[in-house]
Structure formats: C-alpha cells, structure tokens
Design a protein that fits this description.
mainly beta, single chain, elongated, 10 strands, four-stranded antiparallel beta sheet
C-alpha cells in the first residue's frame, strides 16, 4: 500500500518504511507526527481524494533535522564587470513512514 501526501507545498509518494526529506517541520527528532493531508491511497483499491481522502492519515517518525546540499546562485551582468555569488542551504526534516491508515 502506498499514499500520496502533501506537506510543505510539495507532494510525496510514500510507502511504509520509506524515508523522505521534507521542508522543515517544528518537531524534535524521535517524536511521531501525523500527516493528514492525504491526496490518494493506492494499492489494491485506489482511493482518490477531493482534494483529501477523508479519515486517512500517515504516521511518521522524525529521524533528524538537517540541511540540504549547497546551491550556488551566480549572477553576472554583461559589459559591467559586475557579478554576485550567493549560496543557499535549505533546512530539511527527514521522516520515516511508520504507518498508513485508510
């Protein structure tokens, strides 16, 4: 069984036991979180929400809080000898999916 969930403005396809990195959630590592924005539950019989599936939840354990890879943003203006280099690292939360309930 799998589910498609929404968190942080993005959608993820998850199965029980899978690990995903999502936008930062304000939960400490080791705690359990319940995600209730389930868009679809698949497997044998598919349930599609409008926009969410009623009464279904995905339970996940917070593994760690960290940061993603460095992204370099380089801008250059022609004929001006002007340039700018900036870096960015997004804060991420790693989740391990422990259960899907329809």
């Amino acid at each position: 069984m799998y589910a498609i969930i929404e968190t942080g403005g993005k959608q993820y396809r998850v199965e029980e036991g899978s690990r995903i990195s999502v936008e930062k959630l304000l939960v400490k590592p080791g705690n359990t979180i319940t995600l209730d924005k389930v868009l679809m539950i698949g497997g044998g019989e598919a349930k599609i929400g409008t926009p969410y599936v009623e009464g279904s939840t995905v339970t996940a354990e917070v593994v760690e809080q960290g940061r993603g890879p460095r992204i370099r943003v380089f801008k250059r203006w022609r004929r001006n000898d002007s340039r700018r280099l900036k870096g960015h690292r997004q804060y991420l939360t790693t989740l391990r999916i422990t259960g899907i309930s329809a």
